[in-house]
Amino acid sequence: MKSMMYQAYQNHMDLTAPWRTGAAAALKYLNLVPQGVSDKLFGRLSAALELISRSSLTYTRPPYGIDKVLVGNRELEVTEEVAYATPFGSLLHFKKQNAPEQPRMLLVAPMSGHFATLLRGTVKTLLQDHDVYITDWHNPRDIPLDQGKFGLDEYTEHLITFLDQLGPRAHMVAICQPSVSALSAAAIMSEDNHPARPATLTLMAGPIDTRIQPTKVNDFAKSKPLQWFEDNLINFVPFQCKGAFRQVYPGFIQLTAFVSMNLERHIKQHVDLADHLAKGEKEKAETIKTFYDEYFAVMDLPAEFYIETIRDVFQEHLLPLGKLTWRGRPVNPASIKRMGLMTVEGEKDDICSIGQTLAAQDLCTGVRAYRKVHHMQAGVGHYGVFSGKRWNNEIYPLLRDFVHVNS
Known about the structure:
By secondary structure, the chain is α/β, with parallel strands linked by helices. The protein folds into two domains: 2-56 and 251-295, no CATH class; 68-219 and 301-405, 3-Layer(aba) Sandwich (Rossmann fold), CATH 3.40.50.1820. The protein is 42% helix and 17% strand. It has helices at 2-30, 39-53, 120-126, 152-166, 179-191, 216-223, 226-233, 251-261, 263-279, 282-295, 303-315, 359-363, 389-405; strands at 68-71, 74-85, 89-96, 104-108, 131-137, 171-175, 200-204, 235-236, 247-249, 301-302, 325-326, 329-330, 340-346, 372-377. The protein has a nine-stranded mixed β-sheet with strand order 1-2-3-5-4-6-7-13-14, with helices on both faces. It has a three-stranded antiparallel β-sheet with strand order 8-9-10. A hairpin with a 3-residue loop joins strand 2 (74-85) and strand 3. The longest helix is centred in the N-terminal third of the chain and has 29 residues, at 2-30. The radius of gyration is 22 Å and the shape is globular. The N and C termini lie far apart (54 Å). The model is unreliable at 45-55 (pLDDT under 50).
């Protein structure tokens, strides 16, 4: 029974928790054994205990871990400050001590089964030249049912509210999935002549029009009727959680799908981790552990948000067809004026293919040509659009200059 799958999973994790706790405690004492005493035996035992202690997912957001950033030739301390919060998300400010005045920027993180901390590298780069805020989404399993639902309308409303908190002439950068909501928020605010409408809108690898060169992800979203997704992927949050009985697309199911796509690679990584731990190769082991600490930190998706995204974005293509609404109001991208528009795509993106984000340029007919910028980055896949060396060295400088010219 699909509604009980999440409950059964949680019961299993609770039942096996003492094993993981015991392994962690045993590992702590084992590490007190002086080096040189049967290193090979204790190394293998230590590796086994650590793998057991790590054999679970976490539903808690990992730390961003951004304590300092280089601004010009000065290293400034960074502190996290919640500027505004709702039950579903926080407007998190990365406040730099003694920083010069810089353009305020809202970085819009996707709701895709992981926390916004996946964008820590993006944030760290942006902090060099911008006053950065991020949409730090909360895990629905921790949100009581009486706080209401969270669908596409609520997501877009959060962006409008967050921009209102930032004030006039802020800039909005949306990564991947929320590009539709970011464009919607910009259109609604422009139509209302909202004083806090963004000065620029940057959409990076976002599914504005998934009819263009459909990917396997797009094909899968259209391969099943909407009812199939509701029946097979939506579960109730277990009774042990604060958000008990809220309907969600569970993080552990999403992660299972991700892992199965590259199962051999993940198995090899854990074999390598065990080998590094047994040999005392701490630096190599730490690299793998750091990756999986983030990868295995999963977040549920509100059922309304997931189902509406499948329907409106991937199956019915409401935005490019001019049929998308927000709170019953038509979303009209042509109403966006006096705003810079930048779109970024990756040549090898197999999640959001070339042309799907560029489509925003044709929809936003009210934006003057000299305020429009499009960049297709050669040699990068989906994640390379907003992380890694080419993001830092080739894409970011273009975004930085675009923002500063339009500030």
